[in-house]
What we know:
The chain is of the alpha/beta class. The chain contains 27 helices and 27 strands. The strands form 7 sheets. A 7-stranded mixed sheet has the order 5-4-17-16-15-6-7. It has a 7-stranded mixed sheet with strand order 26-21-25-22-24-23-27. Helix 3 (81-99) packs parallel to helix 19 (480-491) and helix 10 runs parallel beside helix 15. The chain is globular, with a radius of gyration of 25 Å. The N and C termini lie far apart (63 Å). The relative contact order is 0.16. The model has no long low-confidence stretch (mean pLDDT 95).
Amino acid sequence: MSDTPETTNHHRICPLCEACCGLAVQVQGGRVTSIRGAPDDVFSHGYICPKGYALKDLHDDPDRLRTPLIKRNGVHVPASWDEAFAEVERRLLPIIEQHGRDAVALSIGNPAAHKMALLLYFPRLAKALGTKNIFSASTLDQMPKQLAAGWMFGHWLSIPVPDIDRSDLLVILGANPMASNGSLWTVPDYRGRAKALRARGGRIVVIDPRRTETAEAADEHHFLRPGSDVFLLAAIVHTLFDQGLVRPGRLQPWLNGLEAVREAVAPFSAEAVAARCGLAADSIRGIARQLAAAERGCLYGRIGTCTQRHGTTASWLVDVVNALTGQLDRPGGAMWPQAAAFARNTEGAPGVGGGISVGRHASRVSGAPEVYGELPITLLAEEIETPGIGQVRAYISIASNPVLSSPNGARLSRALDGLDFMLSLDLYLNETTRHADVILPGMSALEHGHYDVAFPQFSVRNHARYSPPVLPAATGALPEWQVLMKLTAIALGRGAAADVQALDNERVAADVQRLAGATVDTTADAVLAAVAHWQGPERLLDLSLRSGPFGDGFGRRPDGLTLDKLVATPAGIDLGPLQPRLPGVLRTPSGRIELAPPPLLADLQTAAADLQTPAPNLVVIGRREVRSNNSWMHNLPTLAKGPERCTLLLHPQDAARHGVVDGQRVTVTGPQGCVVAPVAIDDTMMPGVASLPHGWGHGLAGTQMAVAAERPGANLNQLLDDRLRDPLSGNAVLSGVPIQLSHSMS
């Protein structure tokens, strides 16, 4: 009889970026021995990037927190869960009682998008706290896209994505899917799909201030001055009208505001914007003509279009271009996926709805409007610093590291030191959580079940997949949904000793009461009985799957989806290519696509005035790398190894103008601060544009991320001005910010 431990094989959805690839994980003796792409996965078909291999590093990382910590005399010390929750209750409730619920701020970071428990139970905590001071990573990179979609189509998540597998033209603006595998576009193996597009005679055009990995593999690349996307897009729309290329085709009956758009872009001829864009007028017209002539194609704009002063207006114009050329809701064009679960834009009567609301309240200090229930995260510091009624005195961070990831993190770091109480739920003792009085550890991604709540809403193909836990939870670990429900109980005044299962049962019963009879044709008791064998996030998932567009309707459609069916099909269930969804996808009051929302027309007028502002001599942009998605990934050896990646890319002309050579360390000064970084001279950069990657700046005192501290890098966000944001969405301005270079003495 062999003493060799049994080897088991598991299917797992990768939780480390938006591609959501299927992984084949091999386990022996309770340890992961192999991770590779799962060839039978219905969505990713065996594709894997280096991040997938790093899932083992994350699970095994000795720096990953595994027990609660309480700060005693300035030092974090281990504590039991009971001690930690008692401390939260002791410290948090008096603040609420004395200063009101808005004295608590709550933030959630983008790693939560890959945690079913965090996404589904964070709203319960937010509702229980009752605070208006809610923040997230969305106002660092994507809120313009969501706001534009909300105004145009009636829902925040109705964001059309390129149907690349059937396209013959893809124009990419301010995005690098070769490195990201999509952003608000879940597209595993972009490289392979792009290669297939070109092999069938299609073309890819990239417009970006850097000749990115995506641009290198494209048919055509155009440099563009950062921050000028709105001018380029308005000029493309102007060209479509001017040259008689507006052909919406089957979209025509659902378009409102065509003439208003024509009038709004009148000042933006190709000649008028060429100098500001750094792009010849003929090139601008040529891009417009390609989009108009394509049988199946579309324009895709992403993070570069969002992280600027006119981010929402630029995001809107991307969809306007696709609508005017008839490429919206068309196979091979820009289409709406249909998620199997949690698809809010499939709820209610199809084709009409209440639309969205913004500005239901405003931030206390700057008066920034609420958007999608939250405030700009760049305002968190001032809400803590500024005395008065409603001052933030307590802060709860969930998988969030804004000290590194948001502009002027040094200011926020100082502000956090002035709080009366701070609580974090996180995997690491990092640059933000080091300020916390209590840190509650999250679980390893391999220790809990996983379903992508958000990303099927943006996926290149409709599908449904669920991954059960690969490994049993570590001794003493507490599931994250139970952690959030315990905090919810404390916020509701039920105490740290509350029965979280009973509280969850109450909340689910209330959800089902709203569901039964409205979305499904059965009684609440029957619905609850049907999902009674699940608990926590899995129960919510089964409810959503069964009541969703592909679900079994709790028995009404026996062939439909249930969680049991997904568990029995580890590689997932393919639900087919994207299908036209107009008019059913619309949730606007008019039941039509609103091409000309008044706030966007007004912002375009502001942009017209900005067109005369000369471009700065040197500006900085961020960049995405396949091995670096979030700041915490820098602590994983598989991703951290290799050449230094936190370098300042600089065009040879700019290097010569500043008298610097390759590898030289320079001081980079921005509106709010300065950093020191090594120069990498690189002709892939547009002259006048430098690039520093996002998420670096490790090694601060009090952190516990040893690998990251070995190569801390320079924090791009330390240069940026936390007062600069898109006034419509509140998104931070992270791109096209003026900088100065000087020779470093360090």
